[in-house]
Structures are given as C-alpha cells and as structure tokens.
Amino acid sequence: MDDRDLLQVVSGIIGKERTSDDCCMIKLGDENIILSTDMLHESTDFPKGMTDWQIGWMSAAVTLSDIASCGAVPLAVLLAAGLDEPERISGITLGAKDCCERFGAELAGGDIDFHSELTIVTTGIGRVEDEYYKSRRGAKPGDIICVTGTPGCAGAALEGALRYWKNLVEPLPAVREGRLLAVAGVSSMMDVSDGIALSLYDLSESSGVGFEIFPDKIPLSSGVSAELALHSGGDFGLLFTCGRDILPVLDVDYAEIGVVTDSGEVLCDGVPVEKRGYSHSWIDGS
Ligand SMILES: Nc1ncnc2c1ncn2[C@@H]1O[C@H](COP(=O)(O)OP(=O)(O)OP(=O)(O)O)[C@@H](O)[C@H]1O
Ligand SMILES: Cc1ncc(C[n+]2csc(CCOP(=O)(O)O)c2C)c(N)n1
Ligand SMILES: [Mg+2]
Ligand SMILES: [Mg+2]
Ligand SMILES: [Mg+2]
Fold it and tell me: Are 71 and 182 within 8 A, CB to CB?
C-alpha cells in the first residue's frame, strides 16, 4: 500500500476534486488563492550529507514548486519544524528564508515542536487570476506533452553521481516557468516531484486522457538514464500539455516528449509505462 492508495480514501471523504491537483484553489472574486502543504522527514527525504540550510531550502522549494505548477505567483510559506535537536532551527530557517526570497515569497510563519525524527511541514500560499489558473484537468487528445528541467538528475545523485548533488539537495522550483507557461495558455500542468512516469499517470487520471511518449525525446543529462528520468523523483520540473499553436513559449526551456491520446493508457514506444516512482509505502496489513 502506498500514499496514492491512501489518497483514494481521503478522496472518498473530501471529494476527488480536492485530491486531484497539486494545490487547493479557493476562489476570491476573480482571483484565486492557491494553497499547498508538504511533509518531509529525515529518513526518506533528507539524504545524509545535507546541511540544515539545505534541508530548509528543500522544504520551501517543494511547496513553491506545487504553487508554480498552478500558474500562481507565490506569496508566503509557513514552516512547521518537528525538531530532534533544538539547535537545528537556525540553519533550517535560514535555508527556507533564502529559498522563499529567491522565488519572491516571504517565510511568514510556522510552528516548532519536538519530534524524534526531524520532520518539516511547509505550507505555501499563492495567488492566480482566473484566466491563468492551471490544473491537472485540462489535457486534451491532440495536445502535445512537454517537460521542463533535467529529469533524473536528483535520482542520479542519490545513486552517487556527485555532480548532480545540488540538483538533489537545492532544487529550484520552476516559479518563473510556471507563470510564463500559464500566461502562454497551456492546457494542463503539474510538477514532476515523484518522477515523470507517476506524474503522467496522475495527469492521465485527472484529465481522462492517455499519453504516447517518445523515449528518444526525453531530455537526458550526461550520465542520466531514461529509467531514472522516468522513475526517480526530486527534480521539480513541470509537466505540461498544450496545443502546438502556443509554442514556442519564450524564455522557457522545455522538451516535447509525446502526444496526448484518448486511449487512457500511458505508453512509451507503444508499451505501457511502469507505474513506478517516488512514493511512500506501508507494508500491507500493518
Ligand atoms: N491527507 C490529505 N488530506 C487532504 N488532502 C490531501 C491529503 N494528502 C494529499 N492531499 C491533496 O491531494 C492532492 C494530491 O496530493 P499529492 O501529495 O499527490 O500532490 P503533490 O503535493 O503535488 O505531490 P508531492 O506529495 O509529491 O509533492 C493535493 O491537492 C493535496 O493537497
Ligand atoms: C531518499 C530521497 N529520495 C528522493 C528525494 C527527492 N525528493 C525530495 S522531496 C520529494 C518529493 C516530494 O515529497 P512528498 O511526495 O513526500 O511530498 C522527492 C522525491 C530525496 N530528497 N530523498
Ligand atoms: Mg506536485
Ligand atoms: Mg507537493
Ligand atoms: Mg504531497
């Protein structure tokens, strides 16, 4: 059993429309408030060798990434720290503050508690006009599907590729790109925090479409395999669909990796893509 299975339970209680996007959207007149929260903890999210500053940076970045994927402008981040050691709070707070400032947000609040394992929850708040709000729900057959960033680099670092260590521990949320893509009129968008494959399945389910991915078109950095690009997480690029008419989008680096189909399947070279990526699991029955 993994977190996606458990999300089905939540979805049965609060509604599918509340669990099928990167963020929650609340309408306020002709503007929208965008909210997202993420929990990270030492054993699964903070690889050995990260500094406390990097832990703070990563915690803010993962949440700013979700805000960016809706086409929103980030406003503020709240950080709740469950600390195993009290002296870690300064490095973590400085890292989160630097990340927020770099991407135009304010580290504006949070909470502090004791916890046996360092656990950080970040909550992001952003705003977006009606016309630019993007969700996982707008992909249409005939659109093309594209990805920004360098998929697989964070995964390569986890396997020991030291040149990609910064990609893993100081991820850069695509805040500028998300906004430019939203204004350009993409049809759907999400971040690829859990890897391209799982993200394609999420997008497929939310939009009720399928994808045909062309493996040769997946952008691979030197030494990064297609396996890592598809199935490892932590890269925080954006996956988006659009009509060809809006391309190119100026000042955004993206790669066209396939087409949207009406089949409901996620295929790569005609074969179903394995539904595997970064997820949290529980042993069945426990
Ligand atoms: N326990 C929960 N209760 C209510 N809503 C939840 C819960 N867990 C997740 N959600 C909502 O479900 C949606 C999908 O969550 P998910 O964690 O898969 O997205 P994400 O944050 O983009 O991914 P990641 O966790 O990889 O950052 C989000 O809108 C999220 O707010
Ligand atoms: C061991 C290890 N594997 C991967 C990563 C990269 N990473 C950081 S946050 C995140 C997804 C969002 O988390 P969540 O789904 O819990 O919200 C991922 C995949 C890491 N830092 N450490
Ligand atoms: Mg996301
Ligand atoms: Mg998230
Ligand atoms: Mg999440």
Answer: yes
Decide: 73 and 173 in contact? Cβ < 8 Å. no
Q: Which atom of ligand 2 is nearest to the CA of 279?
A: 15
CATH number attached to the domain at 22-130: 3.30.1330.10
Q: Which one of the ligands is nearest to 124 CA? A: 4
* Neighbour-count burial for 123-162, b at 16+ CB within 10 Å, e otherwise: bbbbbbeeebbbbbbbbeeebbbbbbbbbbbbbbbbeebe
Evaluate: CB of 278 within 6 angstroms of ligand 2: yes
Q: Tell me the pLDDT tens digit for each residue of 26-82.
A: 999 989 999 999 999 999 999 999 999 999 999 999 999 999 999 999 999 999 999
DSSP secondary structure code for residue 255 in this structure:
E
Three-state DSSP state, 200: helix
Query: pLDDT tens digit string along 188-224?
Result: 999 999 999 999 999 999 999 999 999 999 999 999 9
* Ligand 1 atom nearest residue 202's Cα: 18
Distances in whole angstroms, Cα of residue 36 to Cα of each of 33, 67, 68: 10, 7, 10
Q: Is the CB of 7 under 6 A from ligand 1?
A: yes
Ligand 1 nearest-atom number relative to CA 23: 29
| Cα four-point dihedral sign 260, 266, 269, 273 | positive
Residue ranges per structural domain of the chain: 22-130, 135-272
> In a 3-state reduction of DSSP, which class is residue 55?
helix
User: CATH assignment of 135-272, given 3.90.650.10, 2.60.320.10, 3.90.78.10, 3.40.710.10?
Assistant: 3.90.650.10
Q: What is the ipTM of this complex?
A: 0.94
